[in-house]
């Protein structure tokens, strides 16, 4: 029997991911008014796919996500996974695509941070709660292979 609280982050995130995936993105794209995507990383230790829901923003054709971990002292597990293997699968609404993720360069981080706090103002508080600089991750569609 689990002693984990019903409203633990693990449980509500799992419910959100399940609803989003099972509905083909019809449910769960908006989370408290903020757009969310599903990202599947490969576990750096297990080698297994790991999927989570994240609030996202846009910068042109690029998707932006924040490795806030709710202001915790440590980076979220999905972030460690994508550092080890930056090729990911992304679902935005009904659309699913392969992508490559990388950290925002320092010279553009502040601008992208402003974009993300405009979408989810709580990121400002999360940053105050931790001594680590919360990373911004840029996700770009993987280039299509040349079939020619």
TrEMBL record:
Regions crossing the membrane: none
The family classification in the record reads: Belongs to the F420H(2)-dependent quinone reductase family.
- Under which name does UniProt file this protein? Nitroreductase family deazaflavin-dependent oxidoreductase
PANTHER family cross-referenced by the UniProt entry: F420H(2)-DEPENDENT QUINONE REDUCTASE RV1261C
Q: State the source organism's domain of life.
A: Bacteria
Q: Report the NCBIfam families cross-referenced here.
A: hi_GC_TIGR00026
Reaction it catalyzes: oxidized coenzyme F420-(gamma-L-Glu)(n) + a quinol + H(+) = reduced coenzyme F420-(gamma-L-Glu)(n) + a quinone
Q: Which InterPro entries match?
A: F420H2_quin_Rdtase, Split_barrel_FMN-bd
């Amino acid at each position: 029997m689990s002693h984990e609280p019903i409203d633990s982050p693990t449980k509500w995130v799992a419910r959100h991911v399940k609803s989003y995936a099972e509905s083909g993105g019809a449910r769960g794209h908006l989370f408290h008014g903020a757009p969310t995507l599903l990202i599947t990383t490969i576990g750096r230790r297990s080698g297994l796919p790991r999927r989570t829901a994240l609030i996202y923003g846009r910068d042109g054709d690029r998707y932006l996500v924040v490795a806030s971990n709710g202001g915790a002292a440590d980076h979220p597990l999905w972030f460690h996974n994508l550092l080890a293997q930056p090729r990911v699968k992304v679902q935005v609404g009904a659309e699913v695509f392969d992508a490559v993720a990388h950290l925002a360069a320092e010279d553009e981080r502040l601008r992208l941070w402003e974009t993300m706090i405009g979408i989810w103002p709580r990121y400002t508080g999360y940053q105050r709660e931790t001594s680590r600089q919360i990373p911004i991750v840029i996700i770009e569609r993987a280039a299509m292979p040349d079939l020619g």
